[in-house]
Specification:
The protein has two domains: about 70 residues, Arc Repressor Mutant, subunit A, CATH 1.10.10.10; about 130 residues, Four Helix Bundle (Hemerythrin (Met), subunit A). The chain is mainly α. It is elongated, with a radius of gyration of 20 Å. It has ten helices and three strands. A hairpin with a 3-residue loop joins β2 and β3.
Amino acid sequence: MPIPKTAAPPPRKLLTDDVYRQLLDSIVSGRLEPGVRVSEEKLGKEFGVSRSPVREAVDRLAMIGLVEVESRRGTRIAALDADRYRDTLDALLPLVTESTRIAVDVASELEQRRLLNRIEQLGDDGVALLGPDGLFSAVFAVLGNDRALRLYTDLVPHVRRMWTLQPDALAAGLCDDEPVRLRAAVEQHDGDSAADVVLSWFEREIGDR
């Protein structure tokens, strides 16, 4: 009787990516609270993986400032930082504004419908703008620039985390006639007008901090 073959384990990069996503979600959602120390060994057992993918995921999180790796003291979830939050918004402003300008100009008919659908889902706060399935995620999907997307995905967790753990910091959404103007801009492939709406939102949010 032939010995059944076991499935090959997934490549380590896939394991690292999966651990990274799970840790990132735990940090942004507050399940791993600011200041909490985490053990790579315990995390490995929790995720059912060796320490290597955990270490690589932790290193990636440290590079974007969500964890702090301290020599001889282990790894700690980074504290909330109001200055870091404002600096992140400052960095996102030109990135998202210019990406919106280009994406609205070049969007295909299908991409245009997706952008319009996201605009229809906008509410009274900024979650539908910067949330995981928000308008700006759709903008970067249209843009198709891996480098810009990576920069966005490295920055935006700091904003989402602040909104989750300090609800008073949650930004308001677009106001007055801005949703109408943004919809018209997308329908007309008017990237400049769309970028103006996005710029106004960022400037208003940064000015309130």
